[in-house]
Write a sequence for this structure.
């Protein structure tokens, strides 16, 4: 299953990618983070202790987490905001700790963690017009660090706000191709 | 510098955590005012406070390689409201992993925010291994002999209003060898496993959400 979490407050990018992935014959589920009630992580620590693997905040993230926990591929789509993602997408990312693997591993000589389950693919699609190189490189480096810390495969893409359908189809094909 | 001139903004939801501890260390030698980022509600008032300060120091934890969502929301709100005029901005980000690159995006994010909104980026400080402190004084840090003087030097830059160079925190990154890294991974894992078991959970069980999904699938309606 491919899970798409998008911030569609400025466009229909999530819907377009969902459609493009659907036409490859893959099972895809999409959440529009900007339309959901998702509260910020409170760092209560329950998901790594008292309620291990489960977030106790009762909001729409309870619909998203089961899908992320069971997915093979996660795709986040967001406007590029200060070289990162919007707060709508960041709230989802922060709450993903509940489905992370708490164990430490060594990869490339460094300590890393991982996600529950095995072999997740992780993609980020950044949207923005006339982005400076500093913004683009920051967005790509954020994905790279996320990928490392999650022990995941995948890459980051950056599109103009007016990206056409063909761009989404191309990204969908790359995402599907990378599935392990 | 007057009290209202310096805003020490804690971007962590935990008021007694490491992010707040680092700001209290700054407030002990300055007249900076410690304020906590509200975790709910509108952020317009907080933006107004930011605009009134001559110097803003933001300290927050690293969640998945950058600052938490609520701070991003504040920056988005501040950017949409506008009205900044050259306030000096410093950043501090702390996280569990000992590597600078794991947390550096937070500072890059603040720098880009400053550049896009007419604030003056003055540099920041990355504190690896900071999460383990859990709010304890910096002197309890595993590398306190190098971390304490470097952070205090960072504070001097804030007090003097000068840019803080990256090498202050970059020099702190430990160079663990291959064997020690494996030992560390083992020790840290044992610690988290022990913590999970303390609450009666099986650390090897599939994630709770997957178990719930399977139970849901197995559930058969009574005839």
């Amino acid at each position: 299953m491919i899970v798409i979490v998008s911030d569609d407050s400025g466009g229909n990018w999530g819907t377009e990618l969902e459609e493009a992935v659907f036409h490859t014959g893959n099972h895809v589920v999409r959440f529009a983070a900007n339309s959901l009630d998702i509260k910020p992580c409170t760092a209560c620590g329950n998901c790594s202790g008292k309620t291990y693997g489960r977030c106790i905040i009762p909001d729409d993230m309870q619909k998203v987490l089961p899908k992320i926990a069971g997915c093979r591929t996660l795709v986040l789509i967001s406007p590029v905001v200060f070289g990162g993602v919007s707060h709508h997408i960041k709230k989802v990312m922060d709450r993903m700790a509940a489905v992370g693997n708490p164990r430490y591993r060594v990869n490339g000589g460094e300590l890393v963690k991982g996600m529950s389950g095995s072999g997740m693919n992780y993609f980020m699609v950044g949207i923005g017009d006339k982005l400076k190189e500093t913004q683009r490189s920051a967005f790509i480096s954020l994905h790279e660090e996320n990928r490392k810390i999650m022990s995941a495969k995948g890459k980051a893409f950056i599109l103009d706000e007016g990206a056409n359908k063909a761009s989404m189809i191309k990204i969908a094909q790359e995402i599907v191709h990378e599935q392990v | 510098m007057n009290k209202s001139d310096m805003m020490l903004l804690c971007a962590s939801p935990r008021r007694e955590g490491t992010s707040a501890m680092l700001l209290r260390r700054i407030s002990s030698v300055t007249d900076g005012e410690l304020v906590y980022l509200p975790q709910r509600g509108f952020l317009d008032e907080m933006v107004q406070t930011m605009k009134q300060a001559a110097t803003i120091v933001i300290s927050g934890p690293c969640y998945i390689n950058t600052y938490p969502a609520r701070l991003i929301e504040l920056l988005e709100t501040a950017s949409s409201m506008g009205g900044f005029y050259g306030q000096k901005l410093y950043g501090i980000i702390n996280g569990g992993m000992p590597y600078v690159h794991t947390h550096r995006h937070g500072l890059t994010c603040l720098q880009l925010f400053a550049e896009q909104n007419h604030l003056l980026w003055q540099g920041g400080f990355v504190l690896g291994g900071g999460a383990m402190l859990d709010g304890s004084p910096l002197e309890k840090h595993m590398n306190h002999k190098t971390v304490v003087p470097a952070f205090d030097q960072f504070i001097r830059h804030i007090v003097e209003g000068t840019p803080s160079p990256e090498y202050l925190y970059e020099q702190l990154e430990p160079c663990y060898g291959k064997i020690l890294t494996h030992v560390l991974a083992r020790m840290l894992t044992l610690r988290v496993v022990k913590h999970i078991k303390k609450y009666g959970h099986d650390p090897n069980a599939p994630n709770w959400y997957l178990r719930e999904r399977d139970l849901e699938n197995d559930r058969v309606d009574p005839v």
